[in-house]
Structures are given as structure tokens and as C-alpha cells.
Amino acid sequence: MKIYTRRGDDGSTALGSGARVSKDSPLPEAYGAVDEAQAVLGLVRAEAGGELAELVEQLERDLWRVMGELAGAARGDGVTPGMVTWLEEQIDSLSDRFEMPQEFVVPGENRVAALLDHARTVARRAERRALAAGVGGDVLAYLNRLSDLLWVMARWQAGEALPSRD
What we know:
The chain has one domain: Hypothetical Protein Ta1238, Chain: A (Up-down Bundle), CATH 1.20.1200.10. Helix content is 62%, strand content 4%. It is built from five helices and two strands; from the N terminus they run E-E-H-H-H-H-H. By secondary structure, it is mainly alpha-helical. It starts with 11 loop residues before the first strand and ends in an 8-residue tail after the last helix.
């Protein structure tokens, strides 16, 4: 199978419905941002090991479902309320392990924490792009909760937080 089709050379892409839209239209912007977040999480997983790598791998798998739903190709395998609940459970579990910062923090205590913060900001962008595309429901809730989880994961990996104020 060839990876190229040449159909996108005119600046269009196909949605799951088969409809062609401009590559810079709202839905491709949204699932493109999710794809970028997934790639950053791949960097996290490559750097990390153990429990963190397992958690990140599950997030990467779930993001395929998010992208499929945004592209209209989920075919019954999209985002579910249970996926949002799972994110909340991970947030609660990790938050119980350490004292959460009570103020803004400067990112970058170490490479993994910095990559998690990068993934978080990309997830926030994906959420904004999904909202601009008129997407709501479980997809929007998932992206919102994902960025919360990534913030908690970054603080967990950073260890001691560097406050934004001296």
C-alpha cells in the first residue's frame, strides 16, 4: 500500500463520512491538535518507564478514539463517559500521592515534566479547536479532563514545584 494518494495535494482532506474539506477547516484543526498531543505523549513514553509509561500508553490509545470521533470515523468506537471517568480516577489517584502546588508553577523541572506540560498545552489547544468546530459532549469533556490529568502528571514527575513568583 502506498502512503500517498495525491488527493490532498489541493489542500483538502477526507473526513470519515467521505466528505472532503479544507485541511485548515475546524475539524482537521481539532484532530490535528489531538494528533500532536499524542505525538508529544509518545516522547514522554520514550523517556519514561514503569507506571508512567503504562498510563501514557493508555492515553495514546484513547486519543486514537478521540481523533476518530472528530474525523467522523469512530463508527461506534468513540469517546464514552467511562473514558472521562477513567481520567478523573487517574487524577484523583495521582493527586493523593503528593501535595499539589497551590499556585502557578514554572514548568521544566525535568525533561519528562516539561514534555507533559507541552502535551497539556497541546491538549488545551485541541479542546479549543474542537469547541470552534462545534464539538461538545464527551469529546470536549475528555479533552478538558485530559489536560487536567497531564497537569497533575507533570507536577508528579517534577517533584518539588518551582513557584511562578520569587
